[in-house]
Amino acid sequence: MSRRPLAVTACCWIVGSGMAYLYNGSSLWLLCAGVSLLCPFLKLIGHCSWKQMLLLWLAFSLGAAYWVYNDGRNVSHIPEALYAGGATAKVEELAVFAEGTIVSAVDIDGDRADFTLALTTIRVNIPVESGQKATGREKGVAGERVMVQLRLASPEELGIAAKWGRGDHIKLAGSIASPATATNYGGFNYREYLHNKRIHWLFKAKGASALELTTGTFTTATFFGWIDDRRYGIGEIIGRLFPDWQAGFMKGLIIGLSDDLDQDKYDQFTGLGLTHILAISGSHVAINISLIFAVLRLCRVTRERALLIVFWFLPAYVLITGFSPSVIRSGIMSMLGVYLLRRGLLKDGLNVLSAAALVMLFWEPYFLLNVSFQLSFAVTAGLILFVPLLTPYFKWLPQKIRGAVAITVAAQIVSFPLTIYYFNQFSLLSIAANLFLVPVISVVTLPLGTAALLLGMVWLPLGQWITYPVRFLNSGTFMVTEWLNGLPGFMTYWKSPSLIWILSFYGVVYFLLYSMSRRNQLDLASTISALDDTVPLQPLQDHDNRRSTLDVNSRLVWGRVGLQVMLAGCTILLLLIGYQPVNSKGTGHVQFIDVGQGDCTLMTTPDGKNILVDGGGTVSFRKPGDSWRDRKDPYEVGAKTVVPLLKKRGIHTLDVVIMTHGDQDHVGGLQAVLEHFPVNSVIMNGSLTDSKTVTKLMSTAIAKDIPIYSVSRGMLLKPDERTTLEFLSPKPTENRTGEIPYIQEQNHESVVFRLQMDGSSFLFTGDMDEAAELKVIEIDNQTPSPPQDHNIDVLKVAHHGSKTSSSQAWLTYWNPVMAVISVGASNSYGHPYPAVVERLLGQGTDILRTDQNGEIQMEVKAGELRVRHMFR
After folding, report:
1. Same domain for 109 and 212?
2. Cα gap 813→791, rounded to integer Å
3. Which residues does the UniProt record annotate as the domain Metallo-beta-lactamase (predicted)?
4. What is the distance between the alpha carbons of residues 203 and 219, in angstroms, rounded to a whole number?
């Protein structure tokens, strides 16, 4: 406490804020009371005074209170303003008129322009008579922010939208809607994401004509708009210096502008844990400061003046590189460091880091939930604490390399828990990639690229000459990243660990390294003592005392070794626990994932085998002439929903992937699944459809040597002793040519199977039609079986509840207890068909729907089903 008061205070503030975020109401106050009662005990084990303990208690309490205060104020007044203005319908159904200031950069992607609008007023879109003013309640929304999503109507409107910028005062007509919440367990919650940015509503408008620029006064947003113009201007120069994808990469590397970053290149960096290179952070600041100092030293500028120049350079650099939490952190730390260095007071980097954290959290408490903020501060603190403990283990390396290796290893250790929590993946090649690529990029590519930019601003051809070695290095860098990403077996997937697991990991690893460093120091001291020939001879009668001392030292050494073995064992145990999937063995699970208008089901057998039935798919109705509407990274349900959920649930391998048929809304998402996960086998219906999706999917499976099996009625699949898949359709066909038939209409050919799992039965039907249903019943009737064999617990309703299936004969034959309809909310097909719903209800079947209930999960054990779903 006495050595690092700011560090301990910041920790207590963060703990208080974190507790206020996790708990609320009486739970929070009971927790605070418990912490208060524990203070005397903490004082005893912490060896601090009552005054210091009171200070820490105040930091904890103020952190919690400050969070509660800010979160309590983070509410929307828009509904009150609209209803005060005479609205009577639901807020989402109103035509709304708003005025305000654009307070973010305008992001134009395809046919959509997105930006944040700070309101001055909002009302129902009724013409305001001359002289009429906004009501008091309308004025209450002043300053509230909304996320604007404006759909452009034509390619010509792209040029109009390009003129909009931060600081513009506008009038806007449209409607408002509540942001979507997560519909799958562990899925992305857009509503919560915007809430942490103090945004509660989406403002949707159509056409550039819905927005009108107006005049207004100079604001802070206007200043940031001017900064945006300078930033984009620098980006244009980089675009003229570097070709194609390299321009986007260098924009991200030098000024943190990721608008033109190639998605494939970004994915390569993400897979190897190298994305921190593209996020402006402490390393970028340090490199630029070093360059400035080197130039100033060549110009014979005094140390005092050089520090002053660097001090004022830092805020300009923070502004021009995007003002993200990581660059704000590094900027504040660097400015404090330069100031303290100039005053001769710089002693402890951890206190400087803590001061930066307190400043940022006081300014915006929601930074605590920002991934960039967490990674930036955690890694920086980890480097301060872990590098001194790790450096002695690399003393066999040259001195200049030793520190770089220790920094890389420490950064990987510290970032690992947060990486798997948020991204659910970790490459075993990450350390190697960081060791070999980061120095090249940081020491050569970034400085040369910056130099090329500065000279290019003066004379473009001169800058272009310097870019040649940088282009060569960039090509080599991505050749290496592509090769490393292509190596199989090195990517591991982890479920999101609990907070207790994360804290335990940090604590155990730190104490393990600390105890080992203490042992090394003791061993070194013993060696020095043994080699010291100036120690006087002791009398013979002290022999027993010396022997006793040696015995005590020996016991201490062995005790320390035992402690290290125990800590190492705890570390391994934590890793093993963290690597286990969410669904434990011994219990079966069937999870109907909400993929909108499509099908996707993840089944985990009691022995831990994973079976994925379909993968959803994004259906596009774009015309060939509408390519201008396409986005740089378009939404694809497999890559954006299915794959992240599988990772978050700790799925390491898919034993079976079943393609019920070749329609886009069932197999489109499987392409991303096959690209990311090891798949042991693919099961299909024995026919193909002439579509790019199916062709690419089959090519990927063949390229990855994944066995592909065709199934038909009468076949069985037994993944484990308690699970059986009995295939009921399609019927076997004679194919003497050996060629796979192409059938465009795939619904009738859907793979249909009955799943028997630990005493419970499920029927999966794909998109089978009524004719296929009657055929299954007819064949079953020809080989009669006891009536009880036909009863099933759960029916996955065919074709999203379409009228072409789920006939009365089919429902009567199977008599399901529950039915699951996988269907998109407000879909244009009118699914599920009302007559189908009526037939199910008439059968006495409970209906669950993904559009109303979100993801539906069923736990199977000893013939009993436990059901839960996202929404009631």
Report:
1. yes
2. 8
3. 597-825
4. 22
Domain count for the chain: 4
pLDDT value for 535: 44
d(C-alpha 156, C-alpha 207), whole Å? 11
**H/E stretch holding 727:** strand 723-729
Q: Is residue 117 part of a domain?
A: yes
Instruction: Residue 99: give its domain's CATH number.
Output: 2.40.50.140
Residue 271 forms part of a structural domain? no
Encode burial over 846-861: b for 16+ CB neighbours within 10 A, e otherwise.
Answer: ebbbbbebbbbbbbbb
- In 586-644 the beta strands, taken as DSSP E runs, fall at 588-592, 601-604, 610-613
Average pLDDT over residues 45-53: 73
Residue 524, domain extent: 500-532+545-579
- Pair 608, 556 in one domain: no
Does any domain span residue 10? yes
| Triad 666, 583, 579: Cα angle to 5° | 105
Together in a domain, 91 and 64? no
The answer on 572 and 521 residing in a single domain is yes
Rounded Cα gap, residues 636 and 673, in angstroms: 12
CB of 452 within 8 A of CB of 466? yes
Judged by DSSP in three states, 95 sits in coil
Which amino acid, one-letter code, is at 794?
A: V
The pLDDT confidence band at residue 354, using thresholds 50, 70 and 90, is very high
pTM of the model: 0.90
Over residues 649-706, the pLDDT tens digits come to 999 999 999 999 999 999 999 999 999 999 999 999 989 998 899 999 999 999 999 9
d(CA 769, CA 607): 33
- Return d(Cα 683, Cα 614) in angstroms, integer: 10
State whether 763 and 794 are in the same domain: yes
